[in-house]
Hints:
This protein is an alpha+beta fold. It has a domain at 3-87: Lrp/AsnC effector binding domain/regulation of amino acid metabolism (RAM) domain (Alpha-Beta Plaits, 2-Layer Sandwich), CATH 3.30.70. It has 4 helices and 6 strands. It has a 6-stranded antiparallel β-sheet with strand order 2-3-1-4-5-6. The protein is elongated. It starts with a strand and ends with a strand.
Amino acid sequence: MPIYITQGHYTREAITGMIAAPEDRSKALKKLVDAAGGKLLSWYLTFGEYDFVAISEFPDETAAAGAVLAAAAGGGVTDLKTALAMTGPDAMKAFGKAGELAPSFKSAGQGKSGGGASGARTQTSVSSTGGRNR
């Protein structure tokens, strides 16, 4: 099954509630992921930009999105960011496919004379609101 990595923030109210009555949120998340047909691989409270990270397997993007949207609808989490993670062998296949496609692709602004990969890096993620961010 594809692996998805989700990061997010707890709301102030959620943090206040968990301080007053500590709870292991991985248990609630496991129940949600299981109900969506997935498997929670790991969950961590984190320092830095995000408050938590969850690593899960889902049968497809619809199941993953359903779980993320259900979590967001609860109101205790915000700023969710989910990314598809690829294993080394899958990444190798993707690079191989890119090698096949790159020679025929013309980058923006290259007109008739340019083409191929420019070496620029892009980052794509799907936010909890369903929009694509770059």
